[in-house]
Structure formats: C-alpha cells, structure tokens
Design goal:
The structure holds two protein chains of two kinds. Chain A has two helices and one strand. By secondary structure, chain A is mostly helical. The termini of chain A are far apart. Mean pLDDT of chain A is 56; it is low at 3-11, 33-47, 78-88 and 102-114. Chain B is mainly beta. Chain B contains one helix and 19 strands. Chain B has one helix at 241-250; strands at residues 15-17, 40-43, 66-71, 75-77, 88-90, 100-108, 111-115, 124-128, 133-137, 139-144, 149-154, 157-163, 166-167, 176-185, 196-203, 216-220, 231-233, 237-238, 256-260. The longest helix of chain B is centred in the last third of the chain and has 10 residues, at 241-250. Chains A and B meet through strand 1 of A and strand 14, strand 15, strand 16 and helix 1 of B.
C-alpha cells in the first residue's frame, strides 16, 4: 500500500499557503494598528462634510445671523466718483461758480479812457489865456 | 434881436461894475449880436458866491448837485422867460467842437435860466426846457486864489486838492461862478497846456485876445511844473499834468467851477 502524505504530495502548496496566511495576517494587523501608530485618534475625525463646506449658502435663523455689515460712508460732497442713483438724495448741488471778476480798467494814461458816462475830450489845440 | 444884459441872475450874486471889458476878439460862443449893458464882474468875494445854487457859504461853496442843459441843435436864448423873440442863438457845439452844455442857475415853469459862456462874465439868459436835455452833475470844482489851490468835489465831498498856478498881478484870474465849456485833449503833453485842458465860461478881464483866442480862461496842465503854486499865468489856472488827467477822467461839460478870491 502506498501512503501518500500531503506534504509529500504538495510540498510547494503548503509553503505557499503559509505565506498567504502570513500576508493576510500582516495586512489585518497593519490595518488596525496603523492609524494609532501614526498618532491619530478617533477624535481627529473631521466628520462628515457639510454643505457650507461645499460652498453652498445655507439659511440661518435670524438670531443666529451675523449683524448686517455697516453702511458705507457717504460720499464726500462733490466727489466726482460718487455714483448716485438718478433722482436720489445726493449732496446738495454745488454752488454755481462765482462770476469772473470784471476786467481791470485800461492802464493807459488817465483820461484817455474815461468812463462811459463822462464826456470825452475833444482833440483840439486850445488858445486859452495860458 | 434884443440884447441880453449881464450879469442878471439873482442866484449869481455878483458884484457888477459899470465897466465894460473890451471884447475885441469876441467870444466864439456869442457869434450873434449879443452885447452887454455894460456890467462886468471884476471881483467876486467869497460871500458873493452864496446863492441858493452855489452852496452854503464859506464852508460849502460848491453845490452838491447841479443841472446842466445839453443841446444838440441850435438853441434859442431869450432875455427873459416867456419872451417870444430870442436874443441870441447858440450853436450846438463850441468853437472847439465840444457839445453845447449850459449850467442851469434857475428854473421858472417851462423855462430855464442858464449861465452863458459869453462876455461879460456872469451873463445869463433863458431857454426853453423843451429845447434841451437836462443832466444832473455831482462834480464841482473850487479854486481858491488866495490859497492857490484847486479842489475837486463829488456831491460836495472833497476828492482832491492840488496847488495851482494862477494869474499874475497884471492878468488876474477872474472870480465868480463859472462852468466847464470845453474838454480838450491836446495830444501834446509837452506843450504849454499839457495833455488836457478845460475851457471855462470865464473870460479874462484884461486880455481880450490871446494866442488867437478871445481871452477865454481855462484850467489846464503845464510844461512848466515849477510854476505851480505861483501867480504867473495870463489868467488861466495851471494844474499838475497828472491832476489834469484825473480831471479829464472825472469832469463833465457843465461842471461848476467856482473861483474865489
């Protein structure tokens, strides 16, 4: 009678099987122990990602809303870049520019340019008593 | 024509002497047969120039405002208000070409008594109000022969006072109340009259002819500034040239000129 032992019959299979078992065991061990070994803990778990973290607006209750941002300061008067709605309440209309100063009287010899309401002299050679 | 006698104006309180001044050259203004009844003003004291139209005595010898009659056409002059026949006719311009302007010294209904720029000094006549345009004048001039000064006033307020040259003893400057008849621009600032000259309604009591003229007295500049303040002229009133220029810019035809002894 012939006795066939498993070892004898499949020696290479036995070694391969052992290696597989060892590899699987190692993976399992590493899978459980790796986070702990790296310093992580369950408390560090960020949890599920919320919609706000995804850039989506989310309505809030009035009491919990942040205060409204302050109103922008009024534009200084006459600021050219102040863009006001047509017809809106803007700064008062600027004062009209003052009229230019009247021109200086001619600087010629006095009497040569007499005022309009003064009789102009007649060009003539007098023969008064001198 | 009838003759206008002079001086007659009640408001021209002049001292008349029965000495007619020879008028050989005659006035460029009279051109007509205007003569005098032989009254001529040879001296007017301060107190004499105090008529209603002349101001208020020594303190205010110049009126605050005067009326001047302007005519732009021939103007009939009458010896009395209401006359039908004119005593003379004045041309619309003087011999130098100045527009006709007459100082009003009195009014009566539709008539105006005006001082006439004719010999003898102080002659007045009457014109119809409808024949002229009336203008108010605030400027006036006072010449003080004693102080040898000329003062320009505006509405009675002094504008300037300047020393002047007056007539020499032999050719005294006549006194009385006159007015500006001519405003002339000689265009010759270096001449004996300076650049600007003003012919008055006054005439020399001594000279009846001078340099081709009829002895009309004037206020004018000079080419001899050193004469200012002296009694050296032939009767005219010399002022510094800058003052003459200022007067030319201010004074109108008809501006009263009161010459005080």
């Amino acid at each position: 009678m012939t006795t066939i032992s498993y070892t004898d019959q499949h020696p290479h299979r036995t070694a391969l099987g052992l290696r597989r078992v060892a590899a699987v065991g190692t993976m399992l061990v590493l899978g459980v122990l790796a986070p702990t070994a790296a310093g992580a803990s369950p408390a560090d778990d960020p949890g599920p990602v919320g919609p706000d973290q995804l850039g989506l607006e989310q309505p809030c209750l009035p009491d919990l809303c942040p205060p409204d941002p302050p109103e922008p300061p009024e534009c200084p008067p006459f600021l050219a870049t102040c863009d006001l709605a047509p017809g809106g309440d803007g700064p008062d209309d600027p004062e009209p520019p003052e009229p230019p100063e009247p021109p200086e009287p001619p600087t010629g010899e006095p009497g040569e340019h007499a005022a309009d309401d003064v009789d102009a002299p007649v060009v003539a050679t007098p023969n008064f008593t001198g | 024509m009838r003759r206008i006698t002079a001086p007659l104006g009640a408001t021209f309180a002049v001292v008349a002497l029965a000495l007619a001044v020879g008028c050989g050259g005659g006035s460029a203004e009279d051109g007509d047969d205007v003569t005098s009844d032989a009254t001529s003003t040879t001296s007017v004291a301060r107190a004499d120039v105090t008529g209603d139209d002349a101001g208020a005595g020594d303190d205010a010898p110049a009126p605050a405002s005067s009326q001047v009659a302007r005519a732009d056409q021939e103007l009939a002059v009458f010896a009395a208000a209401g006359d039908g026949e004119p005593a003379m006719v004045l041309q619309p311009a003087t011999g130098f070409g100045s527009p006709r302007a007459l100082l009003v010294v009195a009014e009566a209904a539709d008539w105006l008594e005006v001082a006439l720029p004719v010999r003898p000094n102080g002659t007045t006549g009457w014109i119809r109000r409808a024949d002229v345009e009336l203008r108010a004048i605030d400027e006036s001039i006072v010449v003080d022969l004693t102080a040898r000064t000329l003062t320009l006033l505006d509405a009675g307020a002094e504008v300037l006072t300047t020393p002047v040259a007056i007539g020499a003893d032999g050719n005294p400057t006549p006194t009385g109340r006159f007015y500006v008849v001519d405003k002339l621009d000689t265009r010759d600032p270096t001449g004996p009259y300076g650049r600007f000259a003003f012919g008055l309604s006054a005439f020399s009591d001594v000279l009846t002819e001078f340099a081709g003229g009829d002895g009309q007295v004037g206020v004018h500049g000079t080419n001899d500034p050193s004469s200012i303040g002296q009694a050296v002229s032939h009767g005219c009133i010399r002022v510094p040239n800058e003052v003459a220029a200022q007067l030319s810019a201010t004074v109108n035809l008809g501006t009263p000129v009161t010459i005080l002894l």
